[in-house]
Write a structure and sequence with these properties.
The complex is a heterodimer of chains A (744) and B (103).
Chain A: H1 3-30, H2 35-55, H3 58-75, H4 83-104, H5 112-126, H6 136-142, E1 172-178, H7 189-199, E2 201-208, E3 226-232, H8 237-243, E4 251-256, H9 259-272, H10 279-286, H11 291-304, H12 314-320, H13 326-348, H14 354-381, H15 384-407, E5 409-411, H16 413-429, E6 434-439, E7 444-446, H17 447-468, H18 472-477, E8 484-493, E9 496-503, H19 510-519, H20 531-536, H21 559-568, E10 572-578, E11 582-590, E12 595-603, E13 606-611, E14 615-620, E15 633-636, E16 639-645, H22 646-649, E17 661-667, E18 670-676, E19 678-686, E20 700-705, E21 711-715, H23 717-727
Parallel strand pairs in A: 6-8, 13-21, 16-18
Antiparallel strand pairs in A: 1-3, 1-4, 2-3, 5-7, 8-9, 9-11, 10-11, 12-13, 12-19, 14-17, 15-16, 17-18, 20-21
Helix pairs in contact in A: 1-2, 1-4, 2-3, 3-4, 3-5, 3-6, 4-5, 9-10, 9-13, 14-15, 16-17, 17-21
Chain B: E1 2-8, E2 11-20, H1 25-38, E3 41-52, H2 54-69, E4 73-77, H3 81-90, H4 93-97
Parallel strand pairs in B: 2-3, 3-4
Antiparallel strand pairs in B: 1-2
Helix pairs in contact in B: 1-2
The chains are: A alpha+beta (744), B alpha/beta (103).
Chain lengths: 744, 103
């Protein structure tokens, strides 16, 4: 790996670690005592320091070291997490990020401003340390910068609990200490020894009399004995343990495998452990310890756990108990680490450049089209074997399409998480107490969409904090909890994902919006508008009702940009508001931008595709084709369903059409009927964007290529639904309104 | 189980008949302690021991320790096969056979 590549890895890694660190710090705000998060913050700082050291970024190392010192004291329980400390640490995290960027850009330590900033923070950090760190950089150089060492698992000085006269040789060492009731319970250790003799050769046995009390108090029915046995046998450890299974509850049993098995156990570990396992399981698998011994050690570990002390490694406890050789534990720990590393590489994720993915998706798109074509040709031959094989293939293609698209799907949660910091900082700077609620973070959507939705969301969130949620005093006056609530929610709804930004603030003021809109000439004074229409006005260019311009928002740019950005993603933004109770912005986005399941229909001589997710049902249009319905409504099971004749909308010549069908499409709770001539059925649709000239085309959102090579337009259902909603019943067939095939 | 003690010139000959097991341990401790308390030299005749278990071995061990502490010579004689087996299994023959005069 060249230095450049290394640097790139460092940059990505640092970025991720800093993100983790921020998340954990924010979590700590809610749960100040959470050890996991404290450790994860510490780990992030520690690793960044370590890898910066590798590149010789002393500026990063020096600053991070101070941060780490403070974190170390937090971890040791000497420092409590306070709000101030968290704010300081968050600021430090930002400076760390800037330092890393500066170092990568070739200016280690950053410019004068950054240096000043990091110095100020270091001083503040030092205040948290009893003894101020004199020269952080030098101190770090002295100590080891690399990662943690393995030896934590087994310390060499750990003592084995064996009597001195038994040395490590080629025997199993069995050490038994009986409980007092063994004899009384009808157990006779003699029989165990006798049985042990059947497993192998008892080379030596020493009765340990040490436990026997003075003759006067000695109870002849109690057992005071211990046994040290050397056994030469080639059975499994478990088999030996089983000999004593009836007294296990009432005695201490330690079985140390012979040295000759050591190599074997180590080999077993090397060869057979290939998946991520817990250390205890690895050791059991190799036969060097039994499950009982591991449980005992775990119990001991749990018992010993006190507050903030890190757990004693299980390997060390096993070793102290004298049931395992340290070498085997070492092997197991190493192997465990290897496997973990391997899995981290293979199992977790692979970094692939977005271009390659893009290319793959393009190719999948082409594959879908060409397989449709092949299928068409195949069907013409009426060769059943061929058709069957083609069916098979198209199913596979479908799978490839889904998997391929799945590759680009990422959960929205990461984007959501970014807002926790935003909300925290903003609410502090505006002296508002705001709680952020996130839900649906696991919902996935296309990576491109996720990337592009960040900015509009940011705008909406800022807007809610600034204009939506009132100051604490006003909230109190209005009998609302002083703590404002902002929620980000994502959920799936008929082929789209809906992201909502809701607050429990004052809501939008209808009057003020109308006044402002009149002033700006967006509406005429005597226009009657529904609430929805009024609220939508805020998305018009140049519209802002804020009376005070703050640094957060209110400059009158924004909402229109939000709408434009979202529409560029084939999405829609909508707003609901309840005066005094809050407002809710919903962003509705298509799940993917590339390939969809479509419903192919025919109008005149052309084919059209309606996104299948939005198709509710199909019904036959009553009456003769091109019949003289007076209005554009039908009665659909007692419901009024407005419909649009696609033939007219797109001015298709429609000679010889005998029957018409209505495809009932649904979007955002609104239904609209699309009158078509023929229903052709489901069709995998690769969306080809329309050229620039057609950007303002209404009613279609894109095009696709059919198997036959023909082009089919993709119907923009949201647009049509909106047209129907706006025009209401006014549009008459062939009336004054010209079918809007023309640009706006 | 029965223990018969014959004293001859300060030397006690103790004969154990029957079982030396957990069931007889309490009684046996009592009976076996007496000769140790009054004799300087004790001989345990084990030929008539029908059964011995860990409790019995433990008791013999106790006697041995006590005898050594008090500087009394304690000898085990004519072990029955059962006793021999148990001694071998426990590898205690050597331990229990040594007399107080040994170093």
């Amino acid at each position: 790996m060249s230095l450049d590549e290394g640097m790139q890895v460092f940059e990505t890694e640092a970025c991720e670690l800093l993100d983790d660190m921020e998340q954990s710090l924010l979590e700590l705000e809610d749960n100040p005592g959470d050890l996991d998060h404290i450790n994860s913050v510490f780990r992030a700082a520690h690793t960044i320091k370590g890898s910066s050291g590798l590149f010789g970024f002393d500026g990063v190392v020096g600053f991070t070291h101070v941060v780490e010192n403070v974190l170390d004291r937090v971890r040791a329980g000497e420092l409590e997490i306070s709000h101030d400390l968290l704010s300081l640490l968050l600021a430090c995290r930002d400076v760390m990020g800037q330092l890393v960027d500066a170092a990568i850009a070739g200016q280690d330590g950053g410019d004068a401003e950054l240096q000043k900033k990091s110095r100020t923070l270091s001083e503040q950090l030092n205040a948290y340390l009893e003894t101020p760190v004199v020269d952080a950089v030098d101190e770090v150089k002295a100590e080891e910068v690399g990662g943690e060492t393995l030896s934590t698992a087994v310390e060499p000085e750990a003592e084995v609990n064996l009597p001195s006269d038994i040395t490590l040789d080629d025997y199993w060492h069995i050490s038994l200490r009986f409980g007092p009731d063994v004899l009384r319970d009808g157990m006779d250790p003699l029989s165990f020894i006798r049985y042990l003799g059947t497993l192998g050769d008892v080379a030596n046995l020493i009765i340990v009399w040490d436990g026997m009390p003075e003759i006067e108090v000695m109870d002849p029915e109690s057992c005071y004995l211990g046994l040290e046995i050397k056994l030469s046998s080639d059975v499994e450890k478990q088999a030996i343990e089983d000999v004593f299974q009836f007294v296990l509850d009432d005695c201490q049993l330690r079985i140390l495998p012979p040295l000759s098995l050591l190599a074997q156990h180590r080999d077993l570990i090397e060869e057979h452990v290939n998946e991520s396992m817990r250390l205890g399981d690895i050791l059991v698998e190799s036969g060097t310890v039994t499950p009982r011994e591991v449980n005992e050690a775990l119990q001991k570990q749990a018992d010993a756990q006190t507050g903030c002390e890190p757990d004693e490694p299980i390997g060390k406890i096993l070793h102290q108990n004298g049931v395992v050789h340290p070498e085997v534990v070492d092997t197991a720990v190493k192997k465990q680490k290897q496997v973990k590393e391997k899995q981290a590489l293979v199992g977790k994720s692979i970094r692939v450049s977005a271009d390659k993915l893009e290319q793959l998706i393009d190719l999948v798109g082409e594959l879908v089209i060409s397989s449709a074509n092949t299928k068409l040709l195949g069907n013409r031959t009426q060769d059943t074997a061929l058709i069957e094989s083609l069916e098979n293939m198209s199913r596979l293609v479908e799978d490839i399409r889904d998997t391929g698209l799945g590759l680009r799907m990422v959960p929205i949660g990461e984007t959501f998480n970014r807002f926790r910091r935003v909300v925290r900082d903003l609410s502090q700077s505006m002296h508002k107490d705001i709680e952020l609620e996130l839900s649906g973070g696991d919902k996935e959507l296309d990576k491109t969409v996720v990337e592009k939705i960040g900015d509009p969301l940011m705008h909406l969130v800022r807007n809610s904090i600034d204009h939506g949620i009132e100051a604490a005093e006003i909230r109190q006056q209005n009998n609302k909890p002083t703590k404002g609530k902002l929620s980000l929610t994502a959920y799936h709804d008929s082929g789209s994902i809906v992201i909502e930004v809701a607050d429990d603030g004052g809501g939008l003021s209808r009057d003020r919006i109308i006044a402002k809109a009149e002033q700006q000439g967006l509406i005429s004074p005597n226009q009657t508008l529904s609430d929805q229409e009024v609220y939508r006005l805020i998305f018009e260019p140049g519209f802002s009702t804020a009376e005070h311009v703050t640094d957060v928002s209110g400059r009158g740019v924004g909402m229109d940009v939000v709408r434009r950005n979202i529409e560029a993603l084939r999405g829609q933004v909508d707003v609901d508001s309840w005066p005094g109770k809050g407002s809710r912005f919903s962003i509705r986005l298509p799940l993917t931008l590339a390939i969809i399941d479509g419903f192919l229909v025919k109008v005149g001589h052309s084919s059209y595709v309606i996104p299948l997710d939005m198709v509710e049902e199909c019904v036959e249009l009553p009456g003769p084709a091109g019949g003289e319905q007076v209005n554009d409504y039908i009665n659909l099971r007692g419901e009024v369903l407005p419909f649009i004749r696609l033939g007219e909308l797109f001015e298709e010549s429609r000679d010889g059409v005998r029957r018409e069908n209505i495809v009932v499409a649904q979007f955002a709770g609104q239904k609209v009927g699309l009158v078509v001539d023929e229903l052709l059925g489901e069709y995998q649709t690769v969306i080809k964007p329309l050229g620039r000239i057609f950007t303002h085309l209404e009613g279609v959102s894109g095009a696709t290529i059919l198997g036959s090579g023909e082009v089919a337009m993709i119907i923009d259902v949201p647009d049509l639904v909106q047209q129907v909603a706006i025009n209401g019943g006014q549009r008459n067939r062939g009336g004054t309104e010209v079918p809007s095939m023309l640009a706006r | 189980m029965s223990v018969t003690v014959r004293t001859q010139k300060g030397k006690c000959k103790v004969k154990i008949e029957g079982d030396m097991t957990i069931y007889t341990a309490l009684e046996m401790k009592e009976k076996l302690l007496k000769p140790i308390e009054k004799c300087k030299s004790v001989e345990l005749e084990l030929s008539q021991v029908l059964d011995i278990d860990t409790a019995g071995i433990q008791l013999l061990g106790l006697l041995k320790r006590e005898a050594m502490d008090r500087d009394i010579s304690l000898e085990f004689k004519n072990h029955s096969t059962t006793v021999q087996d148990a001694f071998t299994l426990y590898h205690v023959t050597e331990q229990l056979e040594q007399t107080s005069t040994d170093p």
